[in-house]
Give the backbone structure.
Amino acid sequence: MKNESRRKFSDKQIRDMYKHAAQEKISLWQACRGKGLSTNDYAIIRNWGKKLGLKPLAPAELSGHADRECQLYALIVDGGGIYIGSSADPELRFKQHIQKAKRDGKNGVNKRDRFIYQAFLKNDQPCKIKIFCKKYKATEIAHREPRLIAKVQAAFPDAVHLNGLIGAPMGGYGIKLSDDEIQAVIDDYTQNKITTEKLANKYDVRRSTINRILQRAGATKTRAEMTVRYDDTVRQKIIEEVKNGATDNEITEKYGMAKHTIYLLKKEHGLT
C-alpha cells in the first residue's frame, strides 16, 4: 500500500491515456509526448498499463503508419551479437532494447533479451547502435529490413544473429522445458486434444515452441486444426497487415505462420 500511495499516475489516468491514444490512432509514446510528459512518464504509464491488462494499438493500426518515415538500424552486442531492426525513432528504440533486456533478461523467455543481459554482466556498456541515415516509408522499409538481415547473416556467418532469437526456445538463452513437461505437452495434445494455443498458455511459452516439440515427436497438427487457424478470415487479416507494412517476423510471431507460407500467401496476392 505504501508503494501504491507514491504512484505518480492513478489507474484512471493511465486508462485515459491509453484510451486517448486509441481514439487518436497514435502510439502511446506520441500521446504522452503530446501531453507534455517525459520519457520517464511514458515508461511508467506503459508499464502500469501492462499490469492493468491494457494494450496499445498495433503499428498497422496507427494513423499515417504507411507514410511514417523509418530508419534501419543495427544493434551490436559484445559477444558477437547483431540485431537488425527499423523504427521511426531508432535512438528511443535502442533505449527500449536495453531497458527490456535489463528488466526481463535474467528470467525471461526472449533469447535476445537474455543474450543482452548476459553481456551486461561482463561489461557496463556492451551495446552500441549503428543507424542507417536514409529514411523510408514504413511500407517500403518492411521489405528492406529482411533483405538487410539476409545480407548481414551472409557477411557475418559466425555472429550470433539476434533476429532469430526472439521466440521462446527449448534451450540456449531461453527457458528450457523439462523432459517431463515435454512429455506432458505431447500427451495433452495427442490424448487430451488440447490445442497448441492453450498449451502455450499453460506452459508459458510461445506457440512455436509447442509446435517444435510436437514436430520432433511426430505429433503433427491435424488438418482440421490447421484449417481453423488459417481460414479465409485469418488469411485476409494477414494480407491487410502486410499491405500496412507488417514484416514477416511480425506475422510469424503474431499468427505462428511459417515464413514460407507467408511468402506463398503474398505471392498469391501479388505482394512479393
